[in-house]
DNA sequence: ATCTTTGCTAACCAAATGGTTAAACTTTAT
DNA sequence: ATAAAGTTTAACCATTTGGTTAGCAAAGAT
């Protein structure tokens, strides 16, 4: 066998699986559909990944490992809270526009099986808001920020950035717009969200 | 047959179905599990609701009809934006603590089948943000609010209130807390969220 | 009392689905 | 060239699953 062909099939499968799992979820996904999309025999899925469960986990870990660095930007770099908020909101929204099914996939599957988060925390050491909380406390003390609780602020940042994508059908219905209009709305939010947050927490 | 027994079985089924569908989703739910939970024979599910799809739709419409009035509070009553935000945040969070699976269920299933939203808009006439947007524009003009886009504000209000429940496993992991601590955090948010929003948009 | 309608169950069915196997084909090593 | 190892497929299998059926049981109507 050629090493290249090898990798190709295995990766083909992973890509197809990603496609199907992210749109249909674990329960809705069909092995046959993944095989068809990868252009191979169904037995190959088991040859490379043993079972649906393991293939799913491969896809899930892959997805999460894309998201984690985004979150780390806000948790563990050294810029000011204001800069973090600005950068994160802009970057994150750009990121999701490129991977639209990702947040929903992760949230849906974490709700289906909350134990997954344990696996993740073991592999992804740095998902820790302690530093962020300490920094918020410090900037509050320094009079840069109004009195603000770090964990609530973090939840708010995530909420404002992630929610619209997770609830996309709902948002589209309320704002009465199509995919085009939705994308425009999200582009607006790249600056809108950070301004909204900064206005709320910055001392003036 | 007694008319009461009649109603009882049908409702028993709906309650069991609600339970199973809301935790497992359409694809993960099993008719047998619903029957077991309702304490009846599987054939009864079809006797009363014909098919899994129709039973699911009954549950879904039921769930949405619980949520809709909550949203209407913020869209179509006559209080000021500030009061709306305060009331909505407090009421909505109380409401969800009582129905914890609801937002996730609705969002998950709307993503699975975006056409559902059409059915809903036909039955639930008043899911319309026009009045809210007009009110925001007016209060901006009057100098009560800073320049603010109505639709973005509405998205933000939803995001801040709904997201933590949808992403509960994620939030729990980040904040490193259990169900107790999560609930406390959400109780805090009843006032926290509205203050956060008001601080951001109110002219001072 | 008995006849009809309605509620309910056990047993059954066909299709779908995740997974396996045996054999063929390819590539690599000797 | 040939053997060994890795890759791929068609056919198959057992189980699960949504759904049906035929008949029993209970209640209401006559």
Description:
2 copies of one chain form a homodimer. With 204 residues, chain A is mainly α. Chain A has 2 domains: 1-50, Homeodomain-like (Arc Repressor Mutant, subunit A), CATH 1.10.10.60; 53-201, Tetracycline Repressor, domain 2. Helices cover 80% and strands 0% of the residues of chain A. The first copy, chain A, is built from 11 helices and no strands. In chain A, helix 1 packs antiparallel against helix 2 (31-38), helix 1 (3-28) packs across helix 4 (52-75) and helix 2 (31-38) crosses helix 3 (42-49). The longest helix of chain A has 26 residues, at 3-28. The first copy, chain A, is globular and about 65 Å long. Chains A and B meet through helix 1, helix 6, helix 7, helix 9 and helix 10 of A and helix 1, helix 6, helix 7, helix 9 and helix 10 of B. Chain A binds a DNA duplex (30 and 30 nucleotides) through helix 1 and helix 3. Chains A, B: Pfam families: TetR_N. Chains A, B: This is Transcriptional regulator, TetR family. Chains A, B: Residues 30-49 bind DNA.
């Amino acid at each position: 066998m050629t090493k290249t062909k090898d990798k190709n099939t295995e990766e083909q499968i992973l890509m197809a699986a990603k496609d199907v799992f992210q749109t249909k979820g674990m329960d809705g996904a069909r092995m046959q559909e993944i095989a068809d999309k990868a252009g191979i025999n169904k037995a190959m899925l088991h040859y490379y990944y043993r079972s649906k469960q393991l293939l799913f986990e491969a896809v899930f870990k892959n997805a999460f490992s894309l998201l984690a660095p985004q979150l780390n930007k806000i948790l563990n770099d050294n810029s000011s809270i204001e800069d973090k908020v600005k950068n994160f909101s802009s970057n994150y929204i750009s990121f999701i526009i490129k991977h639209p099914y990702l947040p929903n996939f992760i949230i849906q599957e974490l709700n289906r099986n909350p134990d997954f988060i344990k696996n993740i925390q073991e592999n992804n050491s740095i998902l820790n808001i302690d530093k962020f909380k300490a920094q918020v406390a410090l900037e509050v003390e320094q009079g840069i920020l109004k009195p603000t609780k770090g964990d609530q602020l973090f939840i708010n940042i995530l909420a404002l950035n992630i929610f619209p994508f997770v609830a996309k059908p709902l948002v589209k219905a309320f704002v009465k717009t199509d995919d085009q209009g939705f994308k425009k709305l999200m582009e607006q939010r790249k600056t809108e969200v950070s301004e909204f947050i900064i206005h709320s927490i910055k001392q003036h």
